[in-house]
User: What shape does this take?
Amino acid sequence: MNSTLVLLHACCAPCSVQCVETLRAEGFEPSAFFYNPNIHPYSEYANRLSALERLRAVLKLNLITSGGYGLREFLTATDAERDFPARCTACYAIRLGETARFAAENGFEYFSTTLLISPYQNHALIAELAEELASRSGVKFLYRDFRKLFRSGQIQARELGLYTQKYCGCIFSEEERYKK
Assistant: This one.
């Protein structure tokens, strides 16, 4: 059986586990795409990438990295003076835009994101932005509401000994985490 290729933007290993397994069960073959200039500090970025590399070995998953550590790009695009929802919109657009671009240039039929597993992310906004990017890139956006799998993915990641983070990744969410 031939699987349909999907480029799956991967924010981290815990969010990727259940997304990959679910898509495979549906007949897709995801390639994880790690493009996350929002993740800060550098040690957090390195921990998440390392965990995805370990997951790649466990799931025999194709892992593609792009862009490297992008502190300046992220801060310029999100503008520290913007409020919470506007920063998130810019962040989604940066990451999904690069995913759609890469998918189009490399022959993927679909693109999606592991952000769709998180109950903390704005699914409606992600889907809206991704559909716009899909129409511009010529690559279909594959929407799935993976949120019911969030907890089981976190548990599975811990069982595999994968690094699990405590915030979305951006410096602003880290600040909010410590303010609480």
About this structure: The chain is about 55% helix and 15% strand. The helical segments are 13-25, 42-59, 71-78, 84-105, 123-137, 150-159, 171-179.
